[in-house]
Amino acid sequence: xxxxxxxxxxxxxxxxxxxxxxxxxxxxxxxxxxxxxxxxxxxxxxxxxxxxxxxxxxxxxxxxxxxxxxxxxxxxxxxxxxxxxxxxxxxxxxxxxxxxxxxxxxxxxxxxxxxxxxxx
Length: 120
Description:
The chain is mainly alpha-helical. The chain folds into two domains: about 1-35, no CATH class; about 50-100. The chain has three helices and two strands, in the order αββαα. Strands 1-2 form a two-stranded antiparallel sheet. Strand 1 (about 20-25) and strand 2 (about 30-35) form a beta hairpin.
């Protein structure tokens, strides 16, 4: 039963798009397939599908190019931030390894501290 219904719907669709025609005369009844109409419609469908795929391909390529550019920008920014952090770390390590020379005020404070600790 399903097969019959599907077949009937398919035939009705073919009549609706003009691919099948029904002719009735006193001597004959006939159903004709307009092969030229079928060919033109399928060629048009193929061309429309090709155009749609080409447009989708172009849009996809644009999106990929945009994503690549944004990714490169983010990677460059991350690289710059990493280099800045590296320089700051190097400066901090250098400061810890080589402390700045003490000033005269520091020397006086050290002497006072030593004097206070040596005099109970």
